[in-house]
Amino acid sequence: MKKATVLILSILMFVGIGLSVFTPKAIEAQTITWKMQSTWPAGIFLHESAVGLAKRIGELSGGRLKIDISPAGAIVPAFEVLDAVHKGALDAGHGWSAYWIGKQPTANLFSSVAGGPFGMDNVDYAGWLYNGGGLELYRELYLDVLKMKVVVFPTDIIASEPLGWFKKPMRSAADLKGLKFRAAGLTAEIYREFGMSVITLPGGEIVPALERGVIDGAEWMDPTMDKELGLQDVAKFYHAPGMHRHTGTLEFIVNKDSWDKLPADLKAIVDMANRENLLRSWLELTSRNVRDLEVLKAKHGVTQVETPKEVLIEILKAWDKVAARYVAKDPFFAKVYASQKEYARKMVSYRRSFYAPYDLVADYYWPKR
């Protein structure tokens, strides 16, 4: 009888221990919580996309990885997000690598590059990142070149950006000379080649600066995000297309110590969520841009002005000059630039020989009026 009693008590104790593993407190103890901030103001698509990414990681992980996300300025200023992630003040950040060109100009090559680069579109550019060695170079930039404790993931493909907003139509490259213009990244240097006076401002400061006359014109992103920012309230002439940011991605950056603590399955989930986000954000944003461009014109009295071809070609010429300067003085910039050019040499040639020109079918069904 004694043996039976001991056996029953042992079984009960074992079951009790097993059940305790699944109590709410035990599950809560297994949850990893990250503190994250974006470089974007609250209420615009870019921050919404970062929120969606954080939510998706939580869903895919079954709640095991929770990300508390804040907009720009909530914890650190927008342009200090990278440093905050490196130092561990933030576990993660969402932003645009060209904001960090003050640390290393090559950062611009992983965000948005004039002309594609080299004629590539967003599909080609994403192909370079994932199949042409681009992502490995991207991570080498942060971990080895900058010596920062940051692991990076491309996220959010961004639309080809328009030239920008002005208070009067720009009909030639000469019209741009002398204008005070908001631009960021190496785009600022491109426009200085035009003789423009360039000021770099975070998103939240653009509209007030344009309203007060601190700047004469500005570029930001695309119809949806430009509308959300309120540019249509302070300027009415919207010039498109642009050539300064023809392709590009945003970035999800993670503190390396926080990353290294994740189990393998959660690391895989973070990687998968960012790859998914590239496609999700691109498709959603493109659809919204179509709708919001019509809203800008019909509801806000915006006039869309076709950018002269002369200006687009001048942007390419100016970018070639800017890039050549950095290639000559920065070996890592030269390494990444050469990688992009070699991938584009093969990809653009293939696309041109196997894909009909977009305008051919477009003009057949939708001839310009």
Please tell me the overall pLDDT: 91
Portion in helices: 40-55%
User: Which regions contain 5 or more consecutive residues with pLDDT less than 50?
Assistant: 6-28
Q: Output the radius of gyration.
A: 24 Å
The chain-level structural class is alpha/beta
Q: Describe the biggest sheet? A: 6 strands, mixed
Individual helix count: 15
Number of E-state strands? 11
Describe this structure in words.
It is a single chain. By secondary structure, the protein is an alpha/beta fold. The protein is 51% helix and 14% strand. The protein contains 15 helices and eleven strands. It has helices spanning 2-20, 24-30, 45-60, 81-87, 122-131, 134-145, 173-176, 187-192, 206-212, 223-229, 256-260, 264-300, 309-329, 331-354, 358-365, and strands at residues 32-38, 65-70, 92-95, 150-157, 164-166, 180-182, 197-199, 217-218, 237-240, 249-255, 303-306. The strands form two sheets. A six-stranded mixed β-sheet has the order 7-6-8-5-9-11. Strand 6 (180-182), helix 8 (187-192) and strand 7 form a beta-alpha-beta unit. It is globular, with a radius of gyration of 24 Å.
Features:
14% strand, 11 strands, 51% helix, globular, alpha/beta, 369 residues
Short description:
The chain is an alpha/beta fold. It starts with a helix and ends with a helix. It has helices at residues 2-20, 24-30, 45-60, 81-87, 122-131, 134-145, 173-176, 187-192, 206-212, 223-229, 256-260, 264-300, 309-329, 331-354, 358-365, and strands at residues 32-38, 65-70, 92-95, 150-157, 164-166, 180-182, 197-199, 217-218, 237-240, 249-255, 303-306.
